[in-house]
């Protein structure tokens, strides 16, 4: 039942720097909707403090899955568990038939190369230009020549609207540009699976809408599966196929499904969380209108 995402060597070989090919990159070994990752009985804890227990869900090939919940409920921690950076207190994270935390180092390294990640802080290497940041994974993990790496990095930067920033220092970018540059770097190796932690937090609505469009482009045209931590409800409604709700009070997931269905029929706490996205204009807000 499980399938395996493409080998990194294959993804790397598929990276030719040709714009046209990017619209045809889809995983040949997965079918839309099949589980790419299965999370089984996952309990996350720091020492004796349990954050979330008994999480059970799949990440389906070709979906955008939003991880949602109040601040501090464990969303970023869950991402770390999903990418092999933090061992579960209990339970398993399966990539195809591979248990992420029971894999030999070679398998783990191969699995890790199949996904791209941007962290909440979106760190870029400040000692390198933006272009060098994006080329770094290609230098480390692909057989591409220097010229091909540059072509590919320029293509990925263009994809996120930063074509002109190849030679820029990260310090010269705005917050939103840094986030987009981090996404370009996460996309460098054409990952089948992309993890984004709060990609649109702190962005203005237009930049945020651009990011939504980018995520939809990745899913629709490149077949990328996207797991996105977000509390931006507009963005969630725009791009997420399903939403996983982590409840801080009960310390477990209390909903998993399409955002609009959950807004209508989900548990009361989830509905309340999701309804905050479309409030009627308040008197105070109206009072500010000229
Ligand atoms: N390395 C760590 N050691 C101990 N506790 C930690 C560590 N990292 C996170 N925590 C705690 O775990 C809880 C969940 O943190 P996490 O960053 O996963 O929350 P979050 O849901 O991503 O929150 P936010 O929406 O604010 O980003 C927090 O109480 C945090 O203080
Ligand atoms: Mg977080």
Question: What can you tell me about this protein's structure?
Answer:
The chain is of the alpha/beta class and 290 residues long. It has a single domain, classed as Rossmann fold. It has twelve helices and ten strands. A six-stranded mixed β-sheet has the order 6-7-8-3-9-10, sandwiched between helices. The longest helix has 18 residues, at 205-222. The radius of gyration is 19 Å and the shape is globular. Bound molecules: adenosine-5'-triphosphate (ATP) and magnesium ion. Residues 46, 51, 69, 71-77, 120 line the site of adenosine-5'-triphosphate.
Shape: globular
Q: Report the mean per-residue pLDDT as an integer.
A: 83
Terminus-to-terminus distance:
59 Å
Largest sheet: 6 strands, mixed
Content of β-strand? 15-25%
Give the strand tally: 10
CATH class: Alpha Beta
The number of helical elements comes to 12
Helicity level, as a percent range?
A: 25-40%
CATH architecture: 3-Layer(aba) Sandwich
Low-pLDDT stretches are: 1-30, 277-290
- What's the domain count? 1
What is the topology, as strand order, of the major beta sheet? 6-7-8-3-9-10
**What's the name of the CATH homologous superfamily?**
P-loop containing nucleotide triphosphate hydrolases
Provide the structure class.
Answer: alpha/beta
The succession of helices and strands, N to C, reads HHEEEHEEHEHHHEHEHEEHHH
User: Which ligands, by name, code or SMILES, are bound?
Assistant: adenosine-5'-triphosphate, magnesium ion
Integer-rounded radius of gyration = 19 Å
């Amino acid at each position: 039942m499980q399938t395996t995402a493409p080998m990194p060597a294959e993804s790397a070989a598929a990276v030719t720097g040709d714009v046209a090919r990017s619209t045809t990159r889809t995983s040949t070994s997965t079918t839309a909707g099949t589980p790419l990752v299965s999370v089984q009985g996952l309990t996350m804890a720091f020492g004796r403090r349990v954050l979330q227990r008994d999480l059970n869900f799949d990440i389906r090939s070709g979906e955008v899955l939003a991880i949602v919940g109040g601040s501090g409920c464990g969303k970023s921690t869950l991402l770390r568990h999903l990418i092999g950076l933090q061992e579960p207190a209990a339970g398993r994270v399966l990539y195809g038939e591979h248990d992420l935390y029971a894999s030999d180092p070679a398998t783990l390294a191969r699995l890790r190369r199949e996904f791209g990640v941007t962290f909440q802080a979106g760190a870029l290497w400040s000692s390198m230009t933006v272009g060098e940041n994006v080329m770094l994974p290609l230098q480390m993990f692909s057989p591409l020549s220097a010229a091909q790496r540059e072509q590919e990095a320029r293509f990925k930067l263009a994809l996120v609207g930063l074509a002109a920033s190849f030679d820029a220092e990260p310090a010269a970018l705005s917050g939103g540009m840094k986030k987009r540059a981090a996404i370009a770097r996460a996309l460098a190796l054409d990952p089948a699976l992309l993890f984004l932690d709060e990609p649109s937090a702190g962005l203005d609505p237009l930049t945020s809408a651009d990011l939504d469009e980018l995520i939809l482009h990745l899913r629709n045209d490149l077949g990328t599966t996207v797991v996105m931590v977000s509390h931006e409800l507009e963005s969630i409604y725009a791009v997420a196929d399903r939403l996983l709700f982590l409840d801080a009070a009960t310390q477990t997931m209390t909903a998993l499904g399409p955002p609009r269905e959950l807004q209508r029929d989900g548990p009361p706490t989830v509905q309340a969380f999701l309804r905050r996205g479309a409030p009627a204009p308040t008197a105070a807000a109206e009072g500010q209108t000229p």
